[in-house]
Structure formats: C-alpha cells, structure tokens
Write a structure and sequence with these properties.
This protein is mainly beta and 456 residues long. It contains four helices and 28 strands. The strands form six sheets. The chain has a nine-stranded antiparallel beta sheet. A six-stranded antiparallel beta sheet has the order 6-25-24-27-22-21, with no helix packed on it. The structure holds fe (ii) ion. It is an enzyme of class 1 (oxidoreductase).
C-alpha cells in the first residue's frame, strides 16, 4: 500500500465501499433481501411472511449480560434441522484443534518461517487449512488455533460451519468471497473478516485463482473492540468502520450440497439436496463482519519512547481476567515515527503472553531482513525477542527526523496461552533454523570508563 493509493481510497470510495454492508460493530441490524420478509415488532409470528421459518442463532447464553449478549433471528426457507442429514466423520488431518501439546520436538527457541508456497492442488478453504499452533482447549471453550490457509478451489456446493469458534481471517494473497447465510462478505489483502461460531459459509475465490492467508480460530469469548481508556472516544478501530452484510440468499433446490461441520475438533459431513444458504431476512447483533485495516487510526508516541504494542489492538477476545486476553489481534500499520532521543523500533522483550506474527505486505521495521509477506514468527511465552542487529544499529545510530513508516502491514495474534506447535509447523521446510542468529551481531559495548556510547 503506498501513500497515494491509501489517500485515494479514503477520499473517493467510502460510499461505494460500504455498498452491500451495514456499518457498526455489534449493532442490532435488520435486513431483508425481499421486501416484507422481516416480521415487524416480533421475532416469531404464528406464520412468517412468505412461509419462511424463524430460527434464532445464539452466540452467547440467553442469560449473558445485555452488553455481551449476541443473537440473531434468521428467516429462512428451511430450518437448519433440514440442513443436516446422516453425518459421517471425515478427516481433515491438517486442521488441528487444541491441545496439540507434545507434537513438536523442536528445541526451545524464538522461531520464524518463510512463506509456504501455495500448492497447485491446495483445494478449498477446508482442505487448504494448515494449523500452526494452538493453546488452551477446544473442549473447554478457551484458547485458540492459528492456521494458515491456501486456496485454489471454490466451495461451489459445499457449506461449512464451525461450532468450535469464530474465525478471524487475514488474507495475504488473493481475494475471498464469504457467502454466509447472513449475506456476502468480500475481502482482499488489507482487510479482515470474522466468521462467528455456527454461521454457515461457503468460501469462494474472488478474482485470482489462488489465495493465501492467516486465520485465528478463537474458542473463547467473542472478539470485541478494546477499551480505549484515556485515549477517549475515538481512534484505533472505530466502530463505524466494521461492516456486516445485508441479507442475501440462494435458492438451489434439487442440487446436491455437502455440509461440513467442525465440532469438538472433529469434522463431520453429510449430503443434502439443496443449499442451506437460504436466509431471506435477518435481524440481530450476531453477525459476520469485515474491517479494512487501512481505516485503523493509530495513536503513538509523539515525544519520546516506544509505546507498548497494545496501542495497535484492533480486536480483543477477553478471558475472565481483566487485561489478559484469550487472544488479541494487533496490527502494525503505516504511521509516522517522530519520537526524539528514542530507540524507535520495538525494545528487547520477554513476555508472559505469546506472540505470533505475520506480514501482510511490505517490511516490518524491527526485522528488515528475513521476515517477508506470507512468513510468520513465533515468540512464545517468556522467550526473548527484539530488533535484529541490523535494525538495532540502524535505529541507534541514525539521525532522528520525522519518518513515515510506509509499505508495511504486519500483525500479531497475542495470547495468554503458551503456543503449542503442530507437527506440521515443526516439520515445515520453510522453518528458518538459524533465525536466532539475527541477534548474533549485537556486540557488548559496555565500557565502565565511557558513559556516553557513540556507536562504536
Ligand atoms: Fe514482544
């Protein structure tokens, strides 16, 4: 993303960008693809308009507090009980669920991988999923799985729902279309989508003939916008920039469809004779949504020092402990660096939280070499990390003037759980076995007779 394209995007196309979506995070939306399909003033009339069935989809317990309660009412051709048939277990061996403890026997170290090439036969969003790490336990609705995906084939007659968690999708190559039962979401690199637990979706290639990216499957409480504290009522990710789709349906009776359900870490499939994407109208606040990361309004140090990366949190999935996320989604977007007399890149660090990073485009300032778009790094719980030697000496010795960090869009999934690598991730030939060497060039400059260090 260059500055010019960002500016054009912001100035010219807001209305067009929102077309087909409704703005707002967690709003109570209502939408109908056919006029009059939505009951007025009640959820469950004796007979719904057009003979549709009313069905409630609950993303939280009925009794969850109002501010976190999530549910939607769907008005559809058939209730979901008719969208499942005789289920049989299927195998998607590379899509793993927590816990994956003990799968990796790699020595303890900070880790980094080059991007894995997209295989020509990667297949669909389901078969192309590769789990990298997990934490927590899918059976207790805590924790997460981090995946990469490679897609070369659309799900034309296959529909999926994930009972285990919501999925935050971060594309890096290629555009995707999520035809969900609540409407259509299109995303390209630079945007993200969140597909809530239980929502039916088929994933289609949208443009190019291949796609690649990252996914966080969140087993815990829903992603939400972080508190802003003293920052106030604006900046970071603003609620108006989250977009939920307007209702859209397909009527494909008599056409064979395969339904796949992920439940408790297992995969189950059945055949039905119609499309389950048959919701004509819906209302509620439990919805899929998308967000353009270019709309993030960063806040940062305007005099000195490097602020904690939490200032770049887009979404947070809380745990029961305040400030201790099940998982956070954090980005490092283009921004100005203006701090005086400061080491501007991230500092050296050890963390009780675990940090998985990916790069969507450009260069990440703390790792100018070796961390490329589509790659990933894992700085696990209480393992040291920080700028490589090149970044350290560059930032320590340069003359500090206001600097625009452009051509960069990195992100982090940060979690309270230690991340347990999968066998797949541990065996990837793209693993950079010499990654820790990037810090070997850091010299010991200490000289008790020389309090001012000038870079020698
Ligand atoms: Fe860190």
């Amino acid at each position: 993303m260059n500055e010019q394209s960002t500016r054009i995007f912001r100035a010219a196309s807001r209305a067009k960008y929102n077309e087909g979506y409704m703005p707002g995070f967690g709003n109570d939306f209502e939408t109908e693809a056919l006029e009059g399909a939505l009951p007025i003033g009640q959820n469950s009339p004796q007979r719904c308009p057009y003979g549709l069935y009313a069905e409630q989809l609950s993303g939280t317990p009925f009794t969850a507090p109002r501010e976190t309660n999530k549910r939607s009412w769907l008005y559809r051709m058939r209730p979901t009980v008719q969208h499942i048939g005789d289920m049989a277990r299927i195998d998607l061996p590379h899509w793993r669920s927590a816990p994956t403890v003990g799968e990796s026997d790699l020595p303890l170290a900070p880790m980094r991988w080059d991007p894995a090439p997209i295989p020509a036969d990667a297949g669909t969003f389901l078969t192309g999923m590769r789990t990298i790490s997990t934490g927590g336990d899918v059976h207790t609705q805590t924790g997460f799985a981090i995946h990469t995906y490679a897609v070369t084939e659309s799900m034309e007659s296959e529909v999926f729902w994930n009972a285990d968690g919501e999925m935050l999708v971060v594309p890096e190559v290629g555009a995707l279309r999520f035809f969900t039962e609540m409407g259509v979401i299109d995303i390209a690199p630079g945007e993200i989508a969140v597909l809530p637990r239980g929502i039916k979706v088929k994933v289609l290639l949208a443009g190019e003939d291949q796609a690649r990216g990252y996914i966080c499957e969140n087993y815990g409480d829903h992603f939400t916008c972080p508190e802003r504290g003293p920052i106030g009522a604006n900046c970071l990710a603003n609620r108006r920039d989250f977009l939920s789709p307007v209702a859209a349906y397909e009527q494909r009776d008599g056409e064979a469809h395969r339904v796949v359900v992920k439940w408790g870490g297992t995969f189950n499939a059945c055949e039905i004779d119609h499309s389950p994407l048959d919701v004509v109208a819906w209302h509620g606040n439990y919805t899929p949504y998308k967000y353009n990361l270019r709309h993030f309004s960063p806040v940062g140090p305007i005099l000195n020092d490097h602020a904690d990366p939490s200032i770049f949190t887009v979404l947070t999935a809380p745990s029961g402990t305040p400030g201790t996320a099940n998982i956070d989604f954090v980005i490092f977007p283009p921004r100005w660096l203006v701090a005086e007399d400061s080491f501007r890149p991230p500092w050296y660090h050890m963390n009780v939280m675990s940090e998985f990073m990916g790069l969507i485009e450009g260069v990440y300032d703390a790792k100018p070499q070796g961390f490329v778009p589509g790659g990933m790094s894992l700085h696990n719980m209480m393992l040291p990390h920080g700028p490589d030697a090149e970044a350290f000496y560059g930032a320590s010795l340069k003359e500090l003037t206001p600097q625009k960090l452009d051509n960069t869009l990195a992100f982090m999934f940060e979690t309270r759980f230690p991340q347990q690598l999968t066998r797949y991730a541990a065996g990837l030939p793209t693993l950079q076995v010499k990654y820790p060497d990037c810090w070997q060039g850091l010299r010991n400059h200490f000289d008790p007779a020389r309090p001012v260090w000038n870079g020698e």
